Amino acid sequence: SSVGRAAHSLASAPEFDPYKVLGVSRHASQAEIKKVYKRLVREWHPDKNKSPGAEDMFIKITKSYEILSNEERRSNYDRFGQMDENQNFARAPQGFRHFHDSFYFDESFFHFPRTSRDFTDSKHHLHYNQYITEVLPASFKRPYLIKITSEWCFTCIHIEPVWKDTVLELEPLGVGIGVVDIGYERQLANHLGAHRTPSILGLINGKVTFFHYAVVREHLRQFVESLLPQKLVEKVTDNSYLEFLNSWHEENKPRVLMFDVASNIPLLYKLTAFAFKDYVQFGYVDMGLTQTSKVVQRFNINTYAPTMLLFKENTDKPADVIQARGMKKQIIDEFVSNNRFLLVPRLVNQKLFDELCPVKQFHRRRKYCVLLVTGEGEQFVSVNEAFFDFASSNTKEVVRFAYVYQRQQQPLCDTLLKKEDTTPPQVVLLERRSATGRVLYRTVTDGWNGSDDDKHRLHEQLEILQRDPSYLTHDAMLPELNNEFASMFLIQWINAAYDYLSQFYFDLLYSNWREMMPVLSLIFSALFILFGTVIIQAFSESGEDKPTKQKATDPPKTAESSPGQESTSSRPPKKNFVEVTELTDITYMSNLVRLKPGHINVVLILTDASKQVLLRKFAKEVYSFSGSQTLHYSFLNVDKHSQWMDSLMESAPDARPSDCLDEEEDFTSNKSDYTGHVLALNGHKKYFCIFRPVFTGEEAECSRWSEEDAATAGPSKASRSRSSSRQKATTLEIHHKLDRLGLWMERLMEGTLPRHYVPAWPGLDTITPQK
């Protein structure tokens, strides 16, 4: 190599003088030599100095320091000009040859930081932000093995070969690898509790554990295995395999049986089980035992190759199988990931609900969830089995089946069944529309008894839903699901205390006091908080608790109540109210005609009689969209500006609805009623979209579906003689005019509503009646 040739030329060069290389006198002390050496090494290190002679100069500096830092070598050089205490001073050629052989080892010794970082550790180097944002969350899916090193750690070279072999073995199995340079990442090293080099530590579930044994490949492998939970993979025999497979119902997870000829469970299987521990339960069958012959024969397993069987609800036949002589991590991960849910899983927590029924994304294919609300008693067994049979024969990608126990998820079931006032068992078709919990849903008519008629009716309604998304007529804000498998607080605290005490004993055993201080601090803090809470509760009076009152915030420009009080969203927009302004002679130009490009003004048409009711309903419907910076909200009073809507409709004839006239009245005597209409006005591009209110019963008997929303009732014409009855409409009827506004707003955000263009906006000041 180039370094070897440089070392040879250095050894044979007669002018080489370590004192001149370092620039120190022959009487310099060890402290002076060390200080100069550190300065020169930083200056001439090949990673930092790119000049052509930097590498040769770096070799001279390191070799000079090696000679002068050792008193015996320094004495030999001063007396004989030799650089190795083992040289035969009478035979110079032999001595130089031995020096060259000795220095060849030093090549890797002194260049370890550069070569190892460039070719081995560079892709594994960790930074503090990377550790916090990527490695720490990923440690809940796989363990990490992290090495703490530094650029001038001369003892790190001794563990380097073992470290490289270990990385080559464990990384393909799924173990995360990290390297922290303590010289560059002091913050991360302090965060991990590492204060010396070299150090090796393990990270799993956010917890750091230090390696304290001899750095041997087998010890490092055993250390990684010890980080994993003990009962991650269950050993299965002829006597226990049926119990293992049939326990899918209690744990709500598929089961994987791994067959192999090995007394100890392979590390690859353990790492896979840890990665999918939240979804799948794993079992291991040692085919070399006589106690497993029946289960091997039962599923006709080939004993010459490792095999994995995945079972769901049907324990007699596996849902999927893989078999290969060389099981690879990528193959196993894909196999398990594609089958991580049961065919009809039970909703046991919010995380599972989010994955089974994802939120609808704009411009993507819709996905619907068919949910069975049922019970746990024996009377529900046949009903549940019939639902499972139906799901087995209707495996479509756009439909996911699930069920929920009413007793376990009472708030969810009450929300879905309250409008229909029904009791389980019921089947609900739903589509999630926002991450905050908003859904569109519809209950299958006549309940669910599991009969053939029920299956046929459900199949028909699913077909209708896939053709017409507006078939879901109800909307609701779902509460967060209860975690049915969450352990009690006391059990969680005991487990955490046990982990800390185990770590305390382990560190005390090895006297790592600096590393043990964070654990001691956490233990005493937890004890202080626990006993402090008990003492405070003991001396507190029961009458001091006062119910907190929700503070209502009124909009600055309207007198309507805050829609934030009515919203059940756990993550509302930034403001807890919707700012709605009135379109008048003063605000008309700024809110419409001169509106910024890309901005839209959503205008509600109302009257004096319906103002309070419609504004309150309008604010509630548009509240979830109030976080958008491009949407503005206004209202127009047609009692004050009665001709503006007629002028707008004359400018855009394609927006005018078909007339619906009373047979006894003349066409000219009819006047359009625009109460409850909503306009989305783009002032810059001069177009608008129109929402026509839901038919409530006080208008004429003819209505039609609007072209903008297939789920929204069409407009109707009311005669002037019926205006008095319209004004006498109940608050409930007027309130329901805007029931479908939320769906219309979603289509507005998607950009799928028809647009009606106008040559110019009608003036508001010229048609305002004088009063």
Automatic annotation (TrEMBL):
Presence of the UniProt keyword Glycoprotein in the record: yes
Pfam families linked: DnaJ
Transmembrane stretches, start-end: 518-539
Biased composition (Basic and acidic residues): 545-554
Region named Disordered: 545-574, 706-731
Entry keyword set: Glycoprotein, Membrane, Transmembrane, Transmembrane helix
InterPro entries (UniProt xref): DnaJ_C16_autophagy_reg, DnaJ_domain, DnaJ_domain_CS, DNAJC16_TRX, J_dom_sf, Thioredoxin-like_sf
GO biological process, one term: autophagy
Protein name stated in the entry: DnaJ (Hsp40) homolog, subfamily C, member 16 like
